[in-house]
Design brief:
There is one protein chain. By secondary structure, the chain is mostly helical. The chain has five helices and four strands; from the N terminus they run ααααββαββ. The strands form two sheets. A two-stranded antiparallel sheet has the order 1-2. A hairpin with a 2-residue loop joins strand 3 and strand 4. Helix 1 runs antiparallel to helix 3. It starts with 6 loop residues before the first helix and ends with a strand.
Length: 120
């Protein structure tokens, strides 16, 4: 999705990015196709009034009132699943539960070195 962004819009996106990084520990890339949707998703979960103000100003700039009509009718969707080399990427929040399963699998894994099985 390519759109022309003003300096004010980019400034609001950078400010939202900083607040999300501080509160959630997640860095959103601005060149991501789903970046704006992720801003709104984190703003809905946030307790920060600054982030909510930034995203409401961002929404007002991205959806002009002549096109959007009432801003309350705009639906904010959560970001879709991203893939890297065919595998879905989860957020760091979801990795804590899955990391214990990965450790269990690694401990039972056998490695064959020069024809002999080695347990790790």
């Amino acid at each position: 999705m390519t759109m022309a962004l003003s300096r004010e819009t980019i400034k609001l996106m950078l400010q939202s990015q900083r607040i999300i990084k501080q509160e959630f520990g997640v860095r959103i890339d601005l060149d991501d196709d789903q970046a704006i949707a992720r801003f709104f998703a984190y703003a809905s979960q946030s307790s920060s009034d600054d982030l909510k103000n930034c995203t409401s100003k961002l929404l007002a700039q991205l959806v002009p009132e002549s096109e959007g009509g009432n801003n309350d009718e705009v639906e904010i969707r959560s970001p879709s699943v991203r893939y890297y080399r065919g595998q879905p990427i989860t957020d760091p929040v979801g990795q804590s539960a899955g990391s214990s399963n990965k450790l269990e699998k690694k401990s039972s894994k056998q490695i064959i070195y020069r024809g002999q099985k080695i347990s790790c």
